[in-house]
Design brief:
The chain is of the alpha+beta class. The chain is built from 10 helices and 5 strands, in the order ααααααααααβββββ. The protein has helices spanning 3-21, 25-43, 50-107, 115-123, 133-152, 156-169, 174-211, 215-230, 241-278, 292-301; strands spanning 309-313, 317-319, 322-332, 338-348, 351-356. A hairpin with a 2-residue loop joins strand 2 and strand 3. The chain is flat and about 115 Å long.
């Protein structure tokens, strides 16, 4: 039998063994049957296949132990999955029981229950999306009553937070919508008392930056002022004289700095274009400090390229659309004499494009 045939056959046998082992315990049973058959062939008198029986017994033993290992692993995974499913089921059942208990307690609340007590009970649901349908109306009423209390106590920020929860639970309730709108108006007035002076100070800083031609700094201040003013749009505050005055000042200052911003934008675009025209920065050799682009250029233009001898080269400096290096070198002139030269080389995108003394 040829070697390739043996190798191919071995591959098929190993693949078959692997497939059997993946069966787990059923594979172990098949392996035991094969082991018993191998032993029977080995013990048979005048058997001519004892060598094959030994190999079969060894292979069967490997299959048995491998299949048992896979069977144990499969059993552990199955047990872990079952435990996980059971844990999830128990948690879901506990959650449902808790929700049912809370719903029953909320439904049993007497009309005389304080809004605070009712809200605390509704808060135990956690997220508003977890409040059952049966409890939404009662919890919405509780948040509404508590929000009204906060409004009466001149705490509009707290009232808005409570009334927004009420609106989420009972979105079609007209009383909730009207009270929330009123609370937002009161909060807007309170906020503007502190935000208005902040906007005014920001506009003053923007004006100072504009006078110093610091256009971007001025724009940053104006953006912050506009964002603060925009938060009051849609409220009565936005119709006030003070809000309109601040908004007008911001618009005037933005108009004033716009030409400077445009010039700055064009300047940066030009600078970016020059950077692109320069290309990658040339590098000085770590051995003698020479620049490859300069050496390549000189070896093309010198009278005797083989006479080129590097002396020194400066680090590349970016200027406008060029990388500029100052290089000193020796080379033979037209009369055969070796002379020292110093030149400035202007490089763009890896090539010398100009040379100056």
């Amino acid at each position: 039998m040829s070697v390739p045939v043996i190798l191919v056959g071995s591959c098929f046998v190993l693949a078959f063994m692997g497939a059997i082992m993946r069966l787990g315990y059923p594979g172990a049973v098949l392996g035991l049957c094969a082991l018993a058959g191998s032993i029977a062939i080995f013990r048979k008198k005048d058997s001519k296949h004892r060598s094959a029986a030994v190999i079969g017994a060894i292979a069967s033993g490997i299959v048995v132990f491998g299949a048992i290992g896979n069977g144990n692993e499969s059993s552990r995974k199955a047990a872990a999955m079952a435990a996980s499913i059971e844990d999830a089921r128990q948690k879901a059942a506990a959650s449902r029981a808790r929700e049912n208990d809370l719903s029953a307690r909320i439904a049993a609340l007497p009309a005389s229950t304080s809004p605070q007590e009712a809200v605390e009970l509704c808060e135990k649901f956690g997220d508003l999306r977890d409040v059952p349908v049966a409890s939404r109306a009662r919890c919405g009423e509780s948040y509404l009553a508590k929000g009204r209390e906060s409004l009466a106590a001149a705490r509009p920020e707290e009232a808005v937070a409570l009334l927004e929860k009420a609106s989420a639970l009972v979105p079609s309730n007209a009383d909730v919508a009207a009270t929330l709108s009123n609370a937002k108006e009161l909060r807007g007035k309170e906020d503007f008392k502190s935000k208005g002076p902040e906007v005014s100070a920001g506009l003053a800083r923007a004006l100072a930056h504009a006078k110093a031609k610091q256009w971007e700094e001025a724009e940053t201040e104006l953006n912050a002022a506009d964002a603060t003013l925009k938060a009051f749009e849609g409220l009565e505050v936005a119709k006030s004289k003070e809000w309109s005055t601040l908004s007008g000042k911001s618009a005037q200052q933005r108009k004033r700095i716009q030409p400077g911003l445009e010039k700055l934008k064009l300047l940066r675009q030009a600078q970016q274009l020059m950077v692109e025209m320069r290309g990658p920065m040339p590098k000085n050799s770590p051995w003698d400090g020479s620049v490859f682009e300069v050496e390549q250029y000189l070896k093309k233009v010198l009278n005797d390229p083989d006479s080129y001898e590097h002396v020194s080269t400066s680090a590349p400096v970016g200027r406008d659309a060029y990388w500029i290096v100052k290089s000193s070198f020796r080379g033979k002139n037209a009369f055969g004499g070796k002379v020292l030269n110093t030149r400035y080389f202007f490089i763009q995108r890896g090539q010398v494009v100009r040379v100056e003394e």
